[in-house]
TrEMBL record:
<protein>
    <submittedName>
        <fullName>Cupin</fullName>
    </submittedName>
</protein>
<dbReference type="InterPro" id="IPR014710">
    <property type="entry name" value="RmlC-like_jellyroll"/>
</dbReference>
<dbReference type="InterPro" id="IPR011051">
    <property type="entry name" value="RmlC_Cupin_sf"/>
</dbReference>
Amino acid sequence: MDSKDRTDVEMEKSKAHIIVEIIEYVPNAVLSKTIIRKTTGNITVSSFDTGEEVAEKSSAFDTYIQIIDGSAEIVIDGKKHKLKLGQGIIIPAHTRNSFCAKEQFKMISTVIKSGYE
């Protein structure tokens, strides 16, 4: 994964935005931008250029992924899931997962950190 731009600063509050326009595609890169970050969880928007991947990892928390542009291949505990525009999936806590961009896509990732203390 080539993360050329990771912005951990929250977005401005009380200001409308178009979610798919928050982040752009950059050749040969995966970009992430924080929408909101709290101790109880965070929401991030990411863009993946065609051919980019995120290596297998796991999280101690449930993560909800929603595709907001293009389509994505997500592998959860060895099972491939092809998500299209508008679709979402919950990645359960403590499961191995990875992402692969067969085409460009953008997603929203929501992590909820309560319930696992």
